[in-house]
Write a structure and sequence with these properties.
about 210 residues; alpha/beta; six-stranded mixed β-sheet; 9 strands; about 30% helix; globular; binds adenosine-5'-triphosphate; ATP-binding cassette domain-containing protein; ABC_transpr_LolD-like
Length: about 210
């Protein structure tokens, strides 16, 4: 199927007999064109879901697919792009270089940097190195990098955590815009501003999806 699909996914951390299960048989799908918010208390497993969807880790059980392929083997940010909670930027490189990193190994057409800078209010610091920007600015740089290849699946982990209301609105508008051009968007968040723009809300509690 198109978009993101997790079927019967269980996962844990730790080796051997010390392994602790943190996700229990999660099944969810995010279709192209929709924004799905993943809510849940701290420690409920949201980041773990994001990492599995991104292909950073393989599940202990079950399957994870992006457009019918394993994200772990695809390693292609036009297929699945990620905005990690810790941003994962290269501090010594410039803002534009960071945003364009996924394009260097891709033949997919890139969204022009100037457009992303405008949409996410990066202009005032676009000439600096990332190490010379604030946390909120870095978060928006990471969102721009996630959007640059118009990915089939976009996974974001708490992407408004460091934003004021006006900038959070820019970020949420960018997510809606990505969905409008066909991305399947999964966004982990505690933020009511994200919940407000989501087409659907999923709730995670102690590694299990709650059903309304
Ligand atoms: N690398 C790891 N090794 C061991 N345990 C981990 C590891 N990463 C996460 N955990 C544990 O797995 C559980 C789920 O963590 P996860 O980061 O997915 O939760 P979360 O819902 O994203 O939390 P938060 O909202 O605080 O970011 C937590 O109990 C956490 O302590």
């Amino acid at each position: 199927m198109s978009g993101l699909s997790l079927r019967g996914v269980s996962h844990g951390y730790g080796a051997g007999s010390r392994r602790v299960a943190v996700l229990h048989a999660i099944t969810l799908a995010v279709e192209p064109g929709e924004v799905v918010a993943l809510l849940g208390p701290s420690g409920s497993g949201k980041t773990t879901v994001c990492h599995l969807a991104a292909g950073f880790e393989e599940p202990d059980a079950g399957t994870v697919e992006v457009d019918g392929r394993s994200p772990a083997t695809a390693a292609d940010w036009s297929l699945v792009a990620v905005v990690p909670q810790q941003h994962g930027l290269v501090e010594g490189l410039g803002v534009e270089e960071n945003v364009l990193l996924p394009t260097y190994r891709s033949t997919t057409a890139a969204v022009p940097f100037a457009r992303l800078a405008d949409e996410l209010d990066l202009g005032a610091f676009a000439h600096r190195r990332v190490g010379e920007t604030s946390l909120g600015e870095q978060q928006r740089i990471a969102v721009a990098r996630g959007l640059v290849l118009s990915p089939r699946v976009l996974v974001l982990d708490e992407p408004t955590g460091h934003q004021d209301d006006d900038r959070a609105e820019l970020v949420t508008a960018a997510l809606v815009g990505a969905a409008r051009v066909g991305s399947a968007v999964l966004v982990s968040s505690h933020d009511s501003r994200v919940r407000a723009i989501a087409d659907r809300v999923l709730r995670l509690d102690e590694g299990r999806l709650l059903h309304d």
